[in-house]
Design a protein that fits this description.
Elements (H helix, E strand, L loop, with lengths): L1 H26 L2 E9 L2 E12 L4 E5 L14 E8 L2 E2 L1 E6 L2 E5 L5 E8 L8 E2 L4 E3 L2 E5 L6 E2 L7 E6 L5 E4 L2 E2 L5 E4 L2 H5 L2 E5 L2 E7 L2 E8 L9 H19 L7 E6 L2 E2 L1 E3 L3 E5 L2 H6 L2 H12 L26 H18 L9 H14 L2 H4 L2 H8 L14 H19 L6 H12 L7 H12 L4 H9 L6 H5 L4 E9 L13 E4 L8 E4 L5 H4 L7 E5 L2 E2 L3 H10 L5 E8 L2 E8 L4 E9 L5 H12 L6
Parallel strand pairs: 1-13, 9-21, 19-20, 20-23
Antiparallel strand pairs: 1-2, 2-8, 3-7, 3-12, 4-5, 4-8, 6-7, 10-11, 11-17, 13-16, 14-17, 15-16, 18-19, 22-23, 24-31, 25-26, 27-28, 27-29, 29-30
Helix pairs in contact: 3-5, 5-6, 6-10, 7-10, 11-12
Length: 609
């Protein structure tokens, strides 16, 4: 009888939830979009937003991306609203927020996105653009959402030049060039590649995958079969790790003439210049592996507070050391498991290069991975003062050490793979993870205590004791500091100074990455406003790079900077860069257990077989 009551209660609860959801959806606005591209005017595109079932006054906004907020609200033009009863009013309340006032009924909002001009030879792969052969549109930079009604579904119709096709993660419909999304989050997370692109498809785990490549008019020919085949092998390895894909389909949106990449729930935008692909596929396949692994680790297994739909810049999470750094770890590992070429021939060589970069930049041990996570996105350069640190590098090395700890504690039966699967099961819903969550998951997998590790190396800043963890695999590291030389034996000058230009400023600002560099010792600091080098005015980042790039060991340069206290001038004598070299060596007399862990790690095996 008790079981019957429970069954009835479960059914009634389900019915009530369904009724409540239906009522909520019935009250939600009905939203449709039309995005129009005119081949005669590629300076931007027009958007028509139709809203039914909304109140007389509602708000529209452009969402801010949690990683790369391009502030596309700067490029919104000619916004207006019409209703069956006449023209409504649009009042801008904030940079990315508009209040729409109507007399009820259906509202038709029109606006134009005027695209910013491209600066530099390559454009960022996630930023919308239009060119004669196609472009990238959609997503957060194109579609406004109804504030407060982010659960509303919507559909998008694309009006494009006749010969252009469409590739997107949005759900297709029976209507040509019309796609739908179940929520505002899904709509805004789905960029749309349009144009005359090349197209390939494959199926893994019963799920279709699509690779599209939009070439420039003067594209360099490259081995497309090797590119698509490499991507497919990466996909197979990632799905094998987690057991199944978390999406119904997936699309790789790859563009010529672009750099960088950005992950999404069921797609990714990738910049891959055709000339670079013709020279070597390995770097771009590494980028593809990294972004594809984000499908799990960052998009679904995400730090607490990361993601969501909001026009305000989101809080900066403390967990990017895991979301980015451990993804770097698997970007390398998945390619090795797939049998693809990598820049370092062995996992040992890869680890040596990581350690050299870590030791060569003192900021990596001066600032905790949690604190570096907070300043990784959404902050101007120089957030760490006269130091530089990489959460990607910190996280990849910590992931490596944790993998060795887990393999040792479980006598090789488990590895970091088991942590990833458990994290996916626990933190791929609405709740994001915190560092204590990661620590608890690792603890459960290895049945060991890692609290001291997390306290020392994640929450606080200490140089990683690499030998302590390398010893678990019968290894030790030999570190040699020496003056750096290039492949030809020529001394490498200390060029560890950079510059960036603040919005609205006409003079670059300096970025010092190590106060012990010749630039730091000369009294220069991050944030100094650069006025001149050797009395010659410097008005751009490019001109600064040219001058510094020409400096050789023994050269002298006078640097003039402006500070709130006034002009400061200093003389820098360029010295030879000191750089560490790391050699990982086998420990004499390693035990059978250590050798077994070492062999499994080097083979990229998830456990000792």
């Amino acid at each position: 009888m008790l079981r019957a009551h429970r069954a009835i209660s479960t059914v009634l609860t389900s019915v009530c939830m369904a009724v409540r959801l239906a009522a909520q959806q019935a009250a939600m606005p009905i939203v449709t979009y039309t995005l129009r591209v005119d081949s005669l005017d590629l300076s931007g595109y027009d958007v028509v937003l139709r809203v039914r079932n909304a109140s007389d006054t509602f708000r529209l906004a452009l969402a801010a991306h949690p990683e790369y907020d391009d502030r596309f609200w700067r490029y919104v033009e000619h916004m207006e609203v019409d209703t069956p009863h006449g023209r409504g009013a649009v009042i801008r309340e904030d940079s990315a927020l508009w209040r729409v006032v109507t007399s009820g009924g259906e509202s038709v909002v029109r606006y134009r996105i005027h695209l910013p001009p491209q600066t530099g030879r390559l454009r960022r792969a996630w930023v919308p653009f239009l060119a004669s052969q196609g472009g990238l549109v959609g997503g957060m930079q194109s579609f406004m959402y109804v504030v407060g009604d982010t659960l509303a579904s919507s559909c998008v119709t694309l009006a494009l030049p006749a010969t252009w096709r469409v590739a997107t993660g949005l759900s297709p419909t029976r209507i040509d060039a019309t796609f739908c999304a179940a929520s505002a989050a899904e709509l805004l997370d789905s960029p749309i590649l349009i144009g005359r692109f090349k197209d390939w498809r494959f199926v893994v785990g019963g799920v279709p995958h699509r690779v599209v490549y939009l070439p420039l008019a003067e594209a360099t020919p490259f081995d497309t079969a090797a590119l698509v085949g490499g991507i497919e092998r990466i996909v197979r390895q990632a799905i094998a790790l987690f057991g199944r894909p978390p999406y119904a389909s997936y699309t790789f949106l790859i563009q010529d003439g672009a750099f960088g990449a950005l992950e999404h729930a069921n797609s990714v935008t990738l910049g891959a210049p055709s000339d670079a692909l013709a020279r070597d596929l390995s770097d771009n396949l590494g980028e593809a592996a990294h972004e594809f692994f984000h499908t799990w680790n960052l998009v679904r297994i995400r730090p607490a507070g990361f993601g969501g739909v909001d026009y305000r810049p989101p809080p900066r999470p403390r967990g990017l050391w895991w979301g980015e750094g451990v993804t770097m770890y698997y970007a390398d590992l998945l390619r090795r498991r797939a049998g693809l070429e990598t820049s370092e021939s062995t996992r040992t060589a890869h680890l040596e290069r990581l350690m050299e970069r870590y030791l060569g930049s003192p900021g990596n041990s001066r600032f905790s991975p949690e604190s570096v996570s907070v300043v990784t996105n959404g902050t101007p350069p120089g957030a760490l003062g006269d130091y530089s640190a990489s959460v990607h590098l910190q996280g990849e090395l910590l992931g490596t050490m944790l993998d060795l700890i887990i393999r040792d504690a479980t006598q090789g039966r488990r590895s970091l793979d088991d942590v990833m699967r458990m994290m996916m099961a626990r933190f791929s819903g609405a709740q994001g993870y915190t560092t204590p969550d990661v620590e608890a998951t690792v603890t459960e997998v290895c049945a060991c205590s890692v609290h001291a590790f997390f306290e020392r190396y994640v929450r606080n800043a200490h140089p990683v004791d690499f030998d302590r963890y390398l010893a678990l695999a019968g290894w030790r590291a030999r570190v040699v500091w020496a003056p750096a030389v290039d492949s030809a034996g020529t001394p490498v000058p200390d060029h560890s100074v950079f510059a960036w230009l603040l919005a609205g400023d006409n003079l670059p600002h300096l970025l010092i990455t190590d106060p012990a560099s010749v630039w730091g010792k000369a009294g220069l600091h991050t944030g100094d406003r650069l006025a001149a080098l050797d009395a010659a005015p410097i008005t751009s980042v490019d001109s600064f790079r040219v001058v510094v790039g020409r400096l050789r060991v023994g050269d002298t340069v006078t640097v003039d900077v402006d500070r709130p206290a006034g002009r400061f001038s200093t003389r820098v004598i360029v010295a030879q860069l000191e750089r560490p070299t790391v050699h990982i060596e086998d420990v004499p007399g390693a035990t059978e257990r250590q050798r077994a862990i070492r062999d499994a790690y080097l083979a990229g095996a998830p456990s000792i077989r």
